[in-house]
Specification:
Layout lengths: L12 H59 L4 H8 L9 E6 L14 E4 L7 E7 L5 E4 L7 E13 L5 E12 L2 E12 L5
Helix pairs in contact: 1-2
Length: 195
């Protein structure tokens, strides 16, 4: 007995094409959403790293001031100004400083390289070091196993005319894809142990 083939069963070419187009649109939307989520997560991570680098720089400068004041309160402020090359008798001064921060440098800070602010000062570039002992950090010193990053830092210190206050401006620049980003932090340090 021969069965009669029913031509009305199955999918037509038009139905198949519509299904493929709809499936492609859904798949494309899901992939776009995943891609944007990954980029957003990376951008948020970079923003958080920039905040940490800003705070680290401010804490480093604050620590050098407090350490000098603790060692000898009578000359601590002058030693702090000397540390950042701001103890000139010419009144107000502005210096751009390259601060070297790495593990262990907080307890024994290295004197920064400070120069006059001529508007053409190049910022410090950061390198990423994934330490095999479990810690990772960013450094302005390049080592053989350090990776390049897009982060850079510019630290400007300005002493006022009376010499009892130093204004600090810290700027972190980085790139998110092709977009340049920047965060700044401005604060003042005073001779809080003035007699």
């Amino acid at each position: 007995m021969i069965k009669k083939i029913n031509k009305n069963k199955g999918f037509t070419i038009l139905e198949t094409l519509i299904a493929v187009v709809l499936l492609s649109l859904v798949l494309n939307s899901v992939l776009t959403l995943i891609s944007r989520s990954l980029f957003t997560a990376q951008y948020a991570k970079n923003d958080m790293i920039a905040s940490y680098l800003l705070q680290e720089s401010a804490d480093y400068i604050r620590n050098t001031r407090d350490t000098q004041m603790k060692i000898d309160p009578a000359v601590g402020w002058g030693n702090f100004l000397d540390f950042y090359n701001l103890n000139d008798s010419n009144g107000q001064q502005t210096r751009v400083c390259k601060i070297k921060i790495y593990p262990g440098s907080i307890s024994s800070p290295t004197a920064p390289e400070c120069s006059n602010n001529n508007g053409n000062n190049a910022p410090d570039v950061f390198y990423y070091h994934k330490d095999t002992s479990g810690g990772s950090y960013y450094s302005t010193e390049k080592g053989s196993d350090y990776a390049d990053t897009t982060f850079s830092r510019l630290v400007v210190l300005s002493k006022n005319n009376s010499g009892d206050e130093v204004d600090v401006s810290i700027t972190i620049n980085w790139k998110n894809g092709n977009n340049s980003k920047s965060k700044s932090y401005n604060l003042s340090f005073t001779d809080w142990q003035t007699n």
